[in-house]
Amino acid sequence: MLMAHSAVLGKLVAEYETLTALHAEEGGAEVRQRLEDLAYSLCTATGTGDVDSALVAARHRLPGARVEDDSVLSA
Known about the structure:
This is DUF5133 domain-containing protein. By secondary structure, this protein is an all-alpha fold. The protein is 60% helix and 0% strand.
């Protein structure tokens, strides 16, 4: 599997988190499509099947990641 560069992952994560914080899923069609595209790109780049797992995997590949980062997500 090809691995995305950490700079690319960082940009994907940052944009996804920004759109999520702005509640983009409730926005217009164009912004919702961008959010879906980012989720797909994150999943593809990390080899995962859902965006939550992709975000965790991406964060682990970013510079400065620690082993305990996102290792246990509370519900």
